[in-house]
Amino acid sequence: MIRFLGALAAQGRYLLVAGLATGVLLPPLAQAMRPWLPEMVAGLMFLAALRIGPRQALGAARDLPGVLALVLLLQLALPLAVAGGAAALGLGGTAVATALILMAAASPISGAPNLTVLSGGDPAPALRLLIVATALLPVTVLPVFLLAEGLGSPAAVLAAAGRLLAVILLAAGAAFLLRATWLRAPRPETISALDGLSALAMAVVVIGLMAEAGPTLLSRPAELAGWLAVALAANLGLQIVADRVLARGPLRDQRLPLSVAAGNRNIALFLVALPPGTTDPLLLFIACYQVPMYLTPLLRRRRGG
């Protein structure tokens, strides 16, 4: 089994593409898996923390100010700038503006460390950014929801952010306890097996996340193409900009994991807070957003990060 999972790790990038295709081509399977997404995402978080271990996850204290500054830039300054730009262009409250503002305001996805591993980088900085960003989300999201047009209730977002933080801390805590008691010094083949298991888990998760894409491809292909273009530009564009900016700062050696986390955000967190009229287009954007997300390892590894 260890050898089989290690072989999966070597093909992890292609497993993600297979998961994307399965979610689009088999809508009934995607719909059936959708209710289990929270549990599967928690499992991804557990696997990432188990692979990294507590010592690497905590990192150096000198990195904390840079991580805090990055969180404030990504989750506060960026969404406010997007909201201001949308208002200036007369696009405030539109579906596209709402999707981009919420994406910019969200913390990184729980699978950011897993994506980093498949991209050939160190997942520990991505996990640190994920934990700090999720912990600060109740603080950074309030100004965005108060100032931007067409968003929902800040109270619902705060409750959802609290639940997400609890899941992350519980999953990471359980994984760190397991590392301390059973897996203190994992061998390289064990790490490779964990990477293969993470890749397989992510390929399964994305099937459920693509539940909206298959039916829309058949009924409204032009609408799907438009949202896919927006998702590609937002996700990959933010990764490229973050990589270039980080290359000039003190976190330059961590720019691959941090830029992967910067571009891949947990926008689905905000579904609980949205007015009913904005939910349908956002679900389609979230489905399209999985495409650049799950192509990230293929693109980033190919160009060397």
Q: Which topology does CATH recognise?
A: Na+/H+ antiporter like fold
- Tally of individual domains: 1
What's the Cα radius of gyration?
Answer: 18 Å
Biggest sheet features: none
Uncertain runs are: none
Q: How many DSSP helices?
A: 15
Using the alpha-carbon principal axes, give the shape. globular
CATH architecture: Up-down Bundle
Kindly provide the name of the CATH class: Mainly Alpha
Helical amount: over 70%
Order of helices and strands: HHHHHHHHHHHHHHH
What does this structure look like?
- The chain is mainly α and 305 residues long.
- The chain has a single domain, classed as Na+/H+ antiporter like fold.
- The protein is built from 15 helices and no strands.
- The protein has helices spanning 2-10, 12-25, 27-33, 37-52, 54-58, 64-88, 95-105, 112-118, 124-147, 154-181, 188-209, 213-219, 221-246, 255-263, 276-302.
- Helix 4 packs antiparallel against helix 11.
- It is globular, with a radius of gyration of 18 Å.
- The model has no long low-confidence stretch (mean pLDDT 86).
